[in-house]
Amino acid sequence: MQATIKWVDGRLFVGESGSGHTVVMDGPPDHGGRNLGVRPMEMLLLGLGGCSSFDVVDILQKGRHEIVHCTTELTAERVDTVPAVFSKIHLHFKVTGKNLAAAAVERAVKLSAEKYCSASIMLGRAGVEITHDFEVLED
């Protein structure tokens, strides 16, 4: 896996993934940015959410569960010292489906957290407290 980050000006950067996709990152004005893009630590949080959501949807679909929506809301806390690393992250999955059993969603969330989500497992090993919960909504 590869990526390239190019500095544009101020605190504005453009990241390009090895697959050719780009994303704009910027800082807040009080740190020299112009608030034109996502903050780098927000990107990390989004990556975790994307990785976990990918797993949950994949596991449920492979189990032939009829899901129609999956939204994952993440909340994070950072320490007050430099480096301002994440100390806690909570993922709340909202999964909508037809006749979707809570046990199936619980299993998918657990498998993602404990076996498949590289981002979650890596951050957890680094000392971040990661918690999960979910709700099942009927379509």
Automatic annotation (TrEMBL):
Pfam families: OsmC. NCBIfam families: PRK10738.1 (NF008009). This is Redox protein. The lineage of its organism: Bacteria, Pseudomonadati, Pseudomonadota, Gammaproteobacteria, Methylococcales.
